[in-house]
Amino acid sequence: MASRKHSTYNSVCFVRRKNAAKNEKNILFLVLGDDRSWAEDLFRLDHDVFISPEPKRAAVDLALMAKYCDDIILTASASTFGFWGAYLAKKATVYYNAESYDFRTKHDADVFLPHWIPLNLSGNTLDENTKKTAGHYYTKLVEVV
Question: Among its keywords, does the record have RNA-binding (predicted)?
Fold first, then answer.
């Protein structure tokens, strides 16, 4: 499933708030993907968002994710590009869109690393499901926008 505007934007707002709560400064969001115009339209008013200029440079984008990203948001969770970028970024906190992955046919542990954090968007509330034990979650609700 492709990234959806509402869940993508709210996921960025969620991570922005988490970093602000930790007094993180000079945060820059790097948007990587194959639809630059979609991303430009979505983030046109956000001054802390940089959109990758050329979607055909996957190797460079993967290297940027692996070396420089502290947080990664997988908005299209079935994306192999996103998976490998997040996997290679060993020190990053990784959030994935649990709504864009078909959990009816696969268990999340088959695809996502145990320390990756699933996010669910419902209305204007984003749920950060933090794993207690395999397959069991508790939910933290965070109001966005």
Answer: no
